[in-house]
Structure formats: structure tokens, C-alpha cells
Write a structure and sequence with these properties.
Layout (H helix, E strand, L loop, with lengths): L2 H33 L4 E16 L5 E15 L8 H5 L3 H5 L7 H29 L2 E4 L3 E4 L4 H5 L6 E5 L2 E2 L3 H9 L6 E7 L2 E7 L2 E6 L5 E6 L2 E3 L4 E4 L3 H28 L10 H13 L2 H20 L6 H14 L5 H29 L2 H9 L1
Antiparallel strand pairs: 1-2, 3-12, 4-11, 5-6, 5-7, 7-8, 9-10
């Protein structure tokens, strides 16, 4: 792979996807800050030297920086470690637009708005896809055939598309599963399409005893095939159904992420699965090559991940700020400034260590380490 192909296939999709998600996240902070009357001094995409920018009528500097690996919104009076002299020097007008002088509920809303914007963005993306393109579902196609199964004995092959069983037309894999399940030990006629040619097969689903939903036992049929991930259909939804389904999928994805993290913490899942920027870049490239639909689905999933990560109660992240505000609300006054400062330093070190660990996982998984080993041995 030459350097230009690498940039186009990996780096460019990653930069585009990550920049959009960071912009959405920071826009959440910005929008609520403006609603709360806080003066926003800078809205930056990226870090480092400014490439270009402009000032709006509210005095905010909107700019794009050289390193596209994040972004930030700088609000007037956001620094909690101002000296007493600095705070005393503020005019009444400046205190009115200072983040530090807003009510705790307003500060918490501004901080929480970033992650919330990522969740809302994921719902918006999925809603648009489900309404315009459709809800994806696996077609009644064969991905793998289990050995010594009814499908193997009947001659099914990977890639077969099943279009009819006896007298019933089928489209989805759930249709196939339902019919087979309801006919244990019964010979069925399958009309399939293989390499654009019609083929007739007859198979008898094997019987298996399972627990019934209402209690007791029941016999179900098993064919022994799994769906083909390459053959997917889409069912367009109405606006309301699209919103409901998108919200449900976003909630489900959030639950899955929490479950995976708990499995890593409890040791039932390896921490090597944690990915960093290199693996995100790889996935971005793969999704982009798979088409716009795949890329948008990936962006929605990554947006949920970004929102969740920022809600972790780690100083330096939005969740760390919210944790401080909870303590402030309980105590009736903020934590000592030195305690907060040490907390932020600890959070910075922790975040950096996690980034290093995730990047090392990327290097190992992508076999970059092995590549360099071969160069020196």
C-alpha cells in the first residue's frame, strides 16, 4: 500500500468522521453555554497552530487547528483555579458572562451537553437512515453450513439465497428460522438461487428439545445454517417508527458497551480488545470502502462511544467535572481548588496512560510491531 492510498483509504475517512463527531460534541457545550449567557471565547476543532478561523458577532473565535485529534470550547471564566486577585478584578458585567459565576445547575448542563449531543446525533443519524434507506435485516441467505446438519446433508452451500419454502415466499432470515423451527422432522422443499440459477433442495430439519416459553419442553427444528452478513435487506420505516427504533438501537448499543467494559474489568474479556486511534482509523477506512450506509452506521456507533467515554467520572473528562459538581451540590461549596487541581492532574495522567495502552493494542493488532521486528532481525 503506497502512502497516498493509505491516506485516502484510512487517514481521510478517520479525520472526516472524527472531526464531525468532535464538532457535534463541542457544539453541544457551545449551544448550552450561549443559552446560559456564558461568553464563549474560542470554538476550536483540533489542537496546535491555527490554520484558519474567524470571529463571529458574539466575539467567539471559530478556528481549525493543525492537529485534527479533538477540539475544545473555551469559555470566559472557565478556569476554576483563578486567584482571588483575578476574581476580584472582574467587573459585574464580566461576572454575568463568566462560566465560573453561573449556578451549579447551569454549569452542569453546559458540561453534560457535549456527551448528550453525541447521543442525540447518533439517534438523528440512525433515524435518517431508517427513514431514507431502511432498517437493515439479514436476508434468507446462507453464510455457513454446519457439518453433519440437515442443511449439509441436503446440499446447501454458502451464498445460497432461499426464496421459497414449500408454498411460502420468504425474504428475511427470521422467516427461514420461523418455518424451520415449526417443522421439526418434516421434509421441506427449498427453492434457492445459487449463482443466479434456480435450485431445488429438500431438507428435513433435525428435531431438538428446548425449554418452552410458557414452561415445559417443546420440539423445534434445526437446519444448521447461519445468515450471510454480505446479503442484507432494508425495510423503510415511517418517521415516528424511525425515531423510536433509532432511540432503541442507541440505548441497546450503550448497554452493549457497558457490558463489554464490565467484562473487561471483571476479567471475563481481554483488555486487548480496547482500540485506539489507529484501529478507529482502520475501521473508518473499511466502513468508507463498504459504502456510505456502513460509514454512517459506524459514525453513529462511534458517536455513542464518544459520549459514553466523556461521561466517565475521570477528572479532565466531562464526567469528572460533573462529579465535582455533585460533590459541590452535596457539600454546599466547591472542593478546595488544590484538590481539584490534583484531581485534574491525575485524570490527565490516567487518560494518557489509557491512550498509550489502547495505541499499543492497535500496534499489536495491526501487526505494526511485528513489521518493525522483522526490519531489525
Amino acid at each position: 500500500m503506497d502512502i497516498l492510498t493509505y491516506i485516502v483509504d484510512w487517514i481521510l475517512p478517520f479525520v472526516v468522521v472524527f472531526t464531525i463527531l468532535v464538532f457535534v460534541h463541542e457544539l453541544g457545550h457551545y449551544w448550552i453555554a450561549r443559552r446560559a449567557g456564558v461568553r464563549v471565547e474560542v470554538f476550536a476543532i483540533g489542537f496546535g497552530p491555527e490554520i484558519f478561523g474567524r470571529n463571529d458577532s458574539h466575539g467567539t473565535r471559530w478556528k481549525v487547528c493543525a492537529i485534527p485529534l479533538g477540539g475544545y470550547v473555551k469559555m470566559f471564566g472557565e478556569n476554576d483555579f483563578e486567584s482571588e486577585e483575578d476574581e476580584a478584578a472582574l467587573t459585574p458585567e464580566e461576572k454575568t458572562v463568566s462560566f465560573h459565576h453561573k449556578r451549579i445547575s447551569q454549569r452542569a448542563a453546559i458540561v453534560a451537553a457535549g456527551p448528550i449531543a453525541n447521543f442525540v446525533f447518533a439517534i438523528v443519524l440512525l433515524t435518517g437512515l431508517f427513514a431514507a434507506v431502511g432498517l437493515p435485516f439479514p436476508l434468507a441467505a446462507v453464510g455457513k453450513v454446519q457439518e453433519e446438519s440437515a442443511a449439509a446433508e441436503a446440499g446447501f452451500e454458502a451464498g445460497d439465497r432461499i426464496v421459497r419454502i414449500d408454498d411460502e415466499d420468504i425474504v428475511s432470515f427470521s422467516d427461514l428460522r420461523r418455518i424451520v423451527r415449526d417443522h421439526p422432522g418434516v421434509s421441506l422443499r427449498f427453492e434457492i438461487v445459487r449463482d443466479d440459477e434456480p435450485v431445488l433442495l429438500r431438507a428435513t430439519p433435525k428435531s431438538m428439545e428446548v425449554d418452552a416459553e410458557g414452561g415445559g419442553k417443546e420440539m423445534v427444528g434445526l437446519l444448521g445454517v447461519s445468515p450471510d452478513p454480505a446479503q442484507v435487506g432494508y425495510e423503510r420505516l415511517g418517521p415516528i417508527d424511525a425515531i423510536i427504533t433509532a432511540s432503541d438501537r442507541t440505548l441497546g448499543l450503550t448497554t452493549q458497551i457497558f457490558g463489554a467494559l464490565w467484562q473487561i474489568i471483571s476479567g471475563t474479556r481481554t483488555a486487548e480488545e480496547l482500540g485506539g486511534p489507529l484501529r478507529i482509523a482502520q475501521l473508518s477506512g473499511q466502513m468508507a470502502q463498504g459504502g456510505l450506509i456502513n460509514l454512517v452506521f459506524f459514525m453513529a456507533a462511534l458517536s455513542v462511544n464518544l459520549g459514553l467515554i466523556n461521561l466517565f467520572p475521570i477528572p479532565m473528562l466531562d464526567g469528572g467535572h460533573l462529579a465535582y459538581y455533585i460533590v459541590e451540590a452535596v457539600r454546599g461549596r466547591p472542593l478546595d481548588q488544590r484538590v481539584q487541581e490534583y484531581g485534574f492532574r491525575f485524570g490527565l495522567v490516567l487518560v494518557l496512560l489509557l491512550m498509550i495502552f489502547a495505541t499499543w493494542n492497535d500496534l499489536v493488532q495491526l501487526e505494526v510491531v511485528e513489521f518493525f521486528k522483522k526490519l531489525v532481525t
